[in-house]
User: Fold this.
Amino acid sequence: MATDDLPSVWTRQRRSRDQPSLNRSQIVAEAVALLDAEGVDALTMRRLGTRLDAAATSLYRHVANRDELVELVVDEVYGEIRVEEVGEDWRASVTDCARSVREMILRHPWVASVIGQVGLSYLGPNVMRLNEGMVAMLRDSGFPVEEAGPAISTVLSYVIGVGVSEAAWLTMLARSGQSEQEWQRRLGPAVVRAVEDYPNLREQYVVGDDVDPAELREQNFAYGLDRVLDGLEPRRRA
Amino acid sequence: MATDDLPSVWTRQRRSRDQPSLNRSQIVAEAVALLDAEGVDALTMRRLGTRLDAAATSLYRHVANRDELVELVVDEVYGEIRVEEVGEDWRASVTDCARSVREMILRHPWVASVIGQVGLSYLGPNVMRLNEGMVAMLRDSGFPVEEAGPAISTVLSYVIGVGVSEAAWLTMLARSGQSEQEWQRRLGPAVVRAVEDYPNLREQYVVGDDVDPAELREQNFAYGLDRVLDGLEPRRRA
DNA sequence: CGGCTATGCGAACAACGTACGCATGACGGA
DNA sequence: TCCGTCATGCGTACGTTGTTCGCATAGCCG
Assistant:
């Protein structure tokens, strides 16, 4: 029974000029859900339209094109990053924010695939908020004006570099349908063979079978972040 | 006059089993050239085929699919990174290698778009060489075994983070067909307006009109790299 | 009540990745 | 010398993509 054939008060579409059945933020939210569920290749105008009970071409009333949609989607997930006011321990504050960025990327691994297309210092409101917040943090914790910018840029570059690497790794894992441990066990021998000719790498690759890969990644992230903050520490003015 | 209609000694194809008219490394090299010249959207099997005087489908005899081609192309440009043996000054050696990575990315800005799809710690020969070389550098300059890995991971994450950001920025500039200075002058007022509500960002955005944006990026990169190395320095064993 | 405008959609188009099957030419053994 | 085999190239074709265009509809305002 198609609603088109039996128009009545109940089936009649309640489309109002003020409340259209489709709007931009709804589209962006559904796009994020689609990306999270099925990855970056699944973000198609038609598929997104289907999920919204709309035709693909309807989306173009609210979004200029696919690229703009991606920009909006990226800014949307930037909104998930928490940036609190700086407390007594500036390292703790920056660390918390940095972890928050990493968590966002791992929650939405597809950002790794699009971050290079969309840039990151663009003018989306959430990106602005993040930058403003981080600069404020460093200023309040004693960094001179002319170094606050470069300093947060350093932290963010590191965090994003790690995040992109990890996300790309996890995406590849997901595509192959294997868990991290599975991969380690199945392709471990192949890696050992590939590493064979490189003495320094072989020396590195003495990972015990019992370590959790996810925790290892976390430790590496923490190590690098600590080093970056160590390097920043003496630039503060007490 | 089609060569097909008048077969002769001169027009006859010199195709040998040992020297096919198409080979993988030639395809990869031409793909890099195409990407450099026209950006990531221009890398299509048909266009690449045209540049090689071949049909699109011929490429599939030498490359499994587009994704594999991208992996090969990425490893190819990783080959441009120079990694020398460590000298007396370990910071100078690491810095040189890091600069080399950045230069490679700026020479091929499209890597920013694909690095998130292909990962970066994969098993391509040139990536292996880079990792081996950097681990060797840090080991030889006094880093303990268990920290050499995390340490190069820290440096590389930072460098790649910066590189991806810069490349994305330059790509967007190239798409809009404007130079960096043009952009600064034309959209400067819009940025000022966007920054208006954020006191800490406004404080940052006091860039003189006479500074060269490219040099400013370079200085920021150097600042962050110095901080990372500052943080790594005390982890060495003399 | 009648025109205006914002919104949704079906159809269509060019371009894409790629599977398939055929043609062709070089090689290796008889 | 000849013939089967095999590697390589290519024409065709299919399904999917982003996007444009023109039409239909339904609420709003005069």
User: Anything to note?
Assistant: Confidence is low (pLDDT under 50) at residues 1-12 of chain B. Chain B touches chain A through 63 residues (CB under 8 Å). DSSP finds ten helices and no strands in chain B.
